[in-house]
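Hi everyone, sorry if this is the wrong subforum. Our group has a chain we'd like a structural model of before ordering constructs, and none of us has done structure prediction before. Sequence below.
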Amino acid sequence: MSRSYWWLLLLFSVFLLPACENPQEWIPFVGGQKTAKARKAANPPAEGFDEQGSDAKAVAIADEVMQAMGGRDQWDKTRYLEWNFFGMRTVLWDKKTGNLRIDSHQDTMLYLTNIHTAETGRIWRYEEEITHPDSINKYLPYAHDYWRRDSYWLLLPYKLKDTGVTLQYAREDTCDGGKKCDVLQLTFVDVGDNPQNKYEVYVDRAEHLVKRWSYFYNQTDTLAIQSLPWDNYKQYGNILLAGVRSDGFGPSELAVYDSISVERFKEP
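Answer:
Right subforum, don't worry. Here is the predicted structure as tokens:
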């Protein structure tokens, strides 16, 4: 990976994806259309999503993305996800409980924590548990920073109506290959380490899937720091995920499990 790409990884903002625990039955389209009320019932926003500041067209497209990815009911039923973040870390997440395991391969550290409790967790380094409170307080925030960054690279299409997000319709454009796309703009309020960031996601009009994402450091910027493909979707369990993409980058070793040993969240 080039040095400039590592720099990009460090700059990318990190946002927390709340676990969804209340599955909703997907309401089918009627005559090719769906009322705003029906869409909201089928794909309710996360608590704190900026509904008032978001526009209806963008929200409707976000709901179509969720349906194309497998549907909100299947997303809510998905329990465990695991992936490798560019060879640096392996992340295991229990969506129902929020339990999180991060094996950091570069510094041989293991973090066991929960995405909802940033102040508690257990840490091992070189297979020895760190027990001093000051050391735990020093290292534990790294796990939650890793989580926010790493999960965004994998789960962006599921985060379009996330906490703190304002969603706007930006314009019509073309995706890779010349297909027509709708471009959605995501801005943020009081979330992540860099709430001034902005993203644009390109949604294929035919497939209703995110096909490209662009990152802007400031919401007022008109020139993206980087624009990258979001493709090579495959089915994992009953949902779609995009791992390593056509540019050679992206999360790898993706897996979805219905059940795992709970000891993976308790011990090395």
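For your construct planning: The longest helix spans residues 133-155. The first strand starts at residue 80 and ends at 85.
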